[in-house]
Specification:
By secondary structure, the protein is α+β, with helices and mostly antiparallel strands. The protein has 7 helices and 8 strands. A 6-stranded antiparallel sheet has the order 3-8-4-5-6-7.
Length: 252
Amino acid sequence: MVAVAAACLSLAATASSASAQSSTSATAITSSRSFPKTTTVKKNLLAESTSTSVDSNSNWGGIESLNPPQTKSTAEKEAEAKAAAEKAAAEAAAQAAAQAAAQAQQQAASRSQSRSSLSASTSSPSATVTVNPPDSASASALVAYAAQFVGVVPYVSGGNTPAGWDCSGFVQYVFAQMGISLPHYSGAQATLGTAVPSLAEAQPGDIIANGAHSGIYVGNGMVVNALNKNAGTVYTPVAYAFSGSYSIRRLL
């Protein structure tokens, strides 16, 4: 009986301890309201956003006054660069053409004046063109002598004097001043002297000729020749003066 009573007391003590713990735990989680209870329902939820006012004198600008930086694609930039380059090239070409035209006009005026003087000096049978004679019998002296007639003496078919000459008449006259007699026919001039194998081996003073034309080689792929009625006595590239094959002959 004593043991049963002790067990009952132990159970009662345990139940009392559990009740105390439960009461303490319930007190720890109990909280009180930290703000007043709101019972009024707000009907206009946008009241705060519409209550803001702006000073009528304020100037915030407009979309039309914005000036954002303009950006361009790579293709647009390349197109603009290409257009600028083409414009610059066109302007340069126009300037070069204008300069060339002015130079040509000046040269034409100079030639006209020279030809007028030459015509006046050769109007009588005894008149002669005043030029410096060759200072020697060398090829370089021949080329220097022939250069004095460039832009001065006109082309005259069948002529062989400074009053006017054709291609072979010019070559004949220049070589005659060196003491060398040549026929007045380009085809015959193409057979004289010593043959030169190629233009790369040609030297100033050599004759370049075929059945249609003849001239005197001056170097750098150029000849001095009486080209035609429009050009007169001029320097031209060999390839321009001779459209077909030709012979290179050395007499000096």
